[in-house]
Amino acid sequence: MDEIDLNLIKKLVANSRIPYRDLAETSNMSVSAIHKRINKLIEDGVISTFIARPSIIALKYLWIVIFGTSKARSLTEMSKEIGYHENVERIAIMSGKFVYVVGFLRDISELQDFSNYVSNTAQIIEPNVGILNVRYVTTPESLTTIDYKILKTLNRDARKSITDIAEDVGISAKTVRKRLDRMIENKLVTFSTQWAPVYKDCFITLFDINLNEGTDVQSTILYLNKKYSQNLVDCASYSNIPNMIIMETWTTNAQESQMILEKLHTEGFKNIIPHIRLSGEYFDCWIDQLLRTK
Known about the structure:
The protein folds into 4 domains: 3-44, Arc Repressor Mutant, subunit A, CATH 1.10.10; 56-136 and 281-289, Alpha-Beta Plaits (2-Layer Sandwich), CATH 3.30.70; 145-186, Arc Repressor Mutant, subunit A, CATH 1.10.10; 203-279, Alpha-Beta Plaits (2-Layer Sandwich), CATH 3.30.70.1060. The strands form 2 sheets. It has an 8-stranded antiparallel sheet with strand order 5-2-4-3-10-7-9-8. It has a two-stranded antiparallel ribbon with strand order 1-6. It has helices spanning 3-14, 20-27, 31-43, 56-59, 75-83, 111-122, 145-154, 162-169, 173-185, 217-227, 254-265, 286-292, and strands at residues 47-54, 62-69, 88-94, 98-105, 128-131, 189-195, 203-210, 232-237, 244-251, 271-282. It is α+β, with helices and mostly antiparallel strands.
């Protein structure tokens, strides 16, 4: 995996249905070269699933992260146990027995019980609970019965062709295209990619960045995205933790990750805590289960 692969993965995470021709044009590569690279990422197990789900706008759910140091004897067994919970979407195990548990909640009423469950099961003594900052948008449409059927067949195979979707759902290709266009236009669907690096070939580091009071979070995220774009996987903030940014980076070795940390220390942030990712796993959550009932 190299920087070109990382760039392709970032684009596929943002939209797993993006045409290979579009990827080729933005990467200055041929379509066949793009196709070969993505197939290699799949064969190597880096890309596991192209996934489709109703969006946070469509279902009005909360996207949360619970993180902290675990006292559990076996983080692998702990991860498996937590993964059975219907709200859990993925878990990342970091160095120093630090863990991140990402979940989707139907509404705020589930927050207390879920955070207690994760904290107790993972044995996190002082858990942090962050609600990811997602811009609220209203839409004039809601998902229809046909939309749910389309998303059901795309759930674990989001790059499926229009023709194959039409055959699975039992409707015309024209109707499938029209409904997909409407879902995308109204931001009712997310097409993403589940992936994990081959850890022997690279380092994934999550930096918890604490900002000084009064710092503009969104402009800081834009700045970090631009300055560290070569290594940046993702950068996000929490609506309920106003002075914190989580920055995820990819490097080929520990020395490069250390260099990023040293650069961050020159930025004037209040505090920076790095965590090296050791493993991670995705799980079926209630949204996936919901699609199976449609």
